[in-house]
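Quick one: structure for this chain?
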Amino acid sequence: MSTGAEKEWLQRFAEALARRTGIEHREHQRQRLHFALQRRMQARGVSSYAEYWELLEQDPSEWQRLTDLVTVTETWFYRHPAFYQALSRHLLPQLHATRPADRPIQLWSTATATGEEAYTLAMAALESHVPAERPVTVVGSDINQEALARARQGLYDARAARQLPRRWKERYLVHHPDGRVEPTPAVRALVRFVLYNLLDLTRGIPPPVSPDVVMCTNVLMYFPERVGRAILRQLHRVLPPDGVLYVDEVVGYLAREIFTPERVDAVIIYRPHLPTRTPPSRRRSMPSRPSPSSSSAQRSSTPDIERALHAFQTGHLDEAEAHLIRWLNRHPLDFRAYFWLGRIHQLREAWAQARQAYERALYLEPTLAAAYLELGNIWRRLGDPMRARRMYQQALRHAAHDPHSAALGYPRSLIRRVSERALATLPTEDPSTAT
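Got it. Here's what it folds into:
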């Protein structure tokens, strides 16, 4: 930006848009805002930021036109293959089995953009083993009115379907002679689109659907973390206990603060309800009604680190921490224990203690990609994008040769996806030194 006055105006517009939409345009993202303002100013015949600001105050509908230009709408069909497969094979049949026969299963695409995500949800519903008599509805919402108009039209370039399995393409798309595609009438019948600002959840405005399944992808990464947490708390409130939330891995650490993670096939989903988990029973040659002394002996024979992991998974962080400390008193070189201590401190937002624990884990096991990944998440949370970038780069570097992270619940594919997506949102140079 050329002048100090122009930077001040861009800051003013960015703050106003953040108040309206929740989406931040940080310093390194201002070029997009600059182009959007220039385009709208030209369209409305004004030549200065001050004139355009006055126009916005006089014509509130202009805010929507500006919002349409600054929000990201890139998407395509079947963008999250593992989730759609889990949805059609397992999650929808489970919901069908627990719902009254006349109650619809309702799916919500919260940032649907031009609609491909909502239509793919409908395809997954049709592909599932849920009987045709069971009503299923899909709502696609977005803040971008222009994108929603394209979603309702439903005509797409063939490239938008590049990731769809061949059978889904043949079954659920109409192919036009000019190469464009559109969802079949059976798919369209399940879907409706509405204008809705996801930030309105935090303002007490009800969602456009009472969802059983929420897809909240490619949107929370654009909000400040405090806003993301507030939105997730509201999604936790509106979902039933056995409902399903799916978010990008890059914001999974936020979801884990509020929801219970669950692996279904190759994907992590989140449930509002914290299930009661009991350790697996073990066959043992002892009386069926052991004496108190034998029960105590068996409990003491279970390693503290196993108890810690079970306590962590069931949300008992204080108990997990106590087990880990006891374990480390006897096994001070166990990097796994330091890693889980880091996770506990991270969930408590005790950032300094979490960093210290992860750094200790890396001192003992320098290739632990999962620790680099979580350090990247912490530095991103603390507003240090350059340190975050370095940690994500280290996570990518070590993921290919790390034999330990998968056992901690961080498979190589997850580390790569999260790190790559995070790096795509971070600046490539230090904003404080950029001119």
